[in-house]
Specification:
By secondary structure, the protein is an alpha/beta fold. Helices cover 39% and strands 16% of the residues. The protein is built from 16 helices and 13 strands. Strands 5, 6, 7, 8, 9, 10, 11, 12 and 13 form a nine-stranded mixed sheet that branches.
């Protein structure tokens, strides 16, 4: 591909990503993968260059751009050398028209930037959400140990006992150790959360929003398969990945339960009032993971945030039905918005008299309202809020 053709490819991809963001469709990484799957002629250097252009534009544009071309023109304003590539050459972008405007830049739409500031983040902390994230792995303690495991590349040891950090793009999933279940890709923040949970061997633990099972596998590893672990979710596709992942990792997951949205307790009735601990890794905006998926801020609007808050409240109420007397709930969101963290705990306590907030502290981060928060700028992790609740 010529340099101009790379620019045009980035514009086409940005158009698709913008449309998907508005329609709450596929994420950017899947759109990019599908685009190049249909264009086998593009070499690895071309794919890397186009991908970098796309994400440069996404990170630069706070409000949703009008078009991919407008987003790329915003990049031109930062890197004037690219302007010469808008030359109308074959497979390249048409010349810039007189008065053609670039997309507005910024960290996020105004309402969202205001919400982040109201949640205690300053400009530097918000800007850090647009940085490029490293790649963290968890050495699977069921099969190996960080101190002795030999890997193709030496990673940086981190605060969590089995965590290692690598540069973004390190091909960990092609390593033999990954195929054998010796390592899992997992952000340091997620690992620290699992380490901090008040769990004991022999507990019955429910991972209520298990998804693909990243935290489920970490729970099994931390407890040495000496607990009863039940993983549940409403997403059949993601939950379907858990069994083969658990087999590869040697993780004992006692039950995998597919939930019917709106009728969750029908499937969970056998364990109602019996769980020692319920992990609620609740669906959220993902504002704490924008370093990895910066187009996420284009997907969020006040109506979507309200929908997520309703869902978070509902999942917490389900968790309360599962916990035994004096049992605990851990509520986690990968968000830095108080609307998806501290506010949800306050609302839960108002609905459930007698429940109490339990002190919780991680090896990194700081207390935040009724819970604890991790931030990319301060802690070098994805952004998380976690709170622990104890039943009467």
């Amino acid at each position: 591909m010529t340099p101009a053709a790379r620019i045009q490819a980035a514009i086409e991809l940005l158009d698709s990503i913008i449309a998907a963001a508005r329609a709450k469709g596929a994420p950017a990484d899947r759109i990019i993968a599908d685009y190049f799957r249909a264009r086998r002629y593009a070499g690895s250097k071309d794919r890397r260059a186009v991908r970098d252009l796309v994400y440069r534009a996404v990170r630069l544009c706070g409000p949703v751009p009008a078009s991919g071309r407008a987003a790329m023109l915003a990049v031109v304003a930062q890197e004037p050398a690219i302007a010469a590539l808008f030359d109308g050459s074959p497979h390249g972008p048409a010349p810039r028209a007189e008065g053609e405007e670039a997309a507005k830049t910024g960290l996020a739409p105004k309402w969202l930037a205001a919400a982040l500031r109201a949640s205690g983040l300053d400009g530097r902390a918000i800007a850090a959400l647009m940085d490029r994230a490293p790649l963290d792995i968890r050495v699977n303690a069921l099969k190996a140990d960080r101190a002795t495991l030999e890997l193709p590349e030496a990673g940086e040891p981190l605060a969590a006992p089995q965590a290692l950090r690598y540069p973004s793009g390190t091909p960990v999933e092609s390593w033999e150790a990954y195929g054998e279940g010796l390592v899992e890709v997992q952000d340091l923040g997620s690992q620290l959360i699992i380490e901090a949970l008040p769990l004991r061997e022999g507990d019955t633990v429910v991972d209520l929003c298990a998804g693909g099972g990243g935290k489920t596998l970490a729970l099994a590893a931390r407890l040495g398969n000496a607990a009863r672990i039940i993983a549940a979710d409403t997403d059949k596709r993601r939950l379907g990945n858990l069994a083969p992942r658990a087999a590869r990792a040697g993780a004992a997951v006692d039950e995998i339960v597919l939930l019917d949205p709106g009728r969750e307790m029908a499937a969970l009735a056998p364990i109602a009032g019996k769980a020692d601990h319920v992990l609620v890794d609740a669906p959220c905006s993902g504002s704490g993971t924008w370093r990895r998926s910066p187009e996420g801020r284009w997907r969020l609007d006040p109506a979507e945030l309200a929908r997520l808050n309703h869902l978070q409240d509902r999942v917490l109420d389900i968790a309360a039905q599962l916990v035994r007397p004096s049992g605990t709930i851990a509520f986690v969101t990968c968000s830095l918005l108080d609307a998806e963290g501290a506010d949800r705990i306050t609302a839960f306590l108002a609905r459930h008299p007698g429940w109490q907030v339990e002190p919780i502290a991680l090896m990194l981060g700081a207390s935040h309202g009724p819970g604890w928060r991790l931030e990319p700028l301060r802690d070098g992790t994805d952004g998380f809020f976690i709170a622990a609740l104890r039943s009467p």
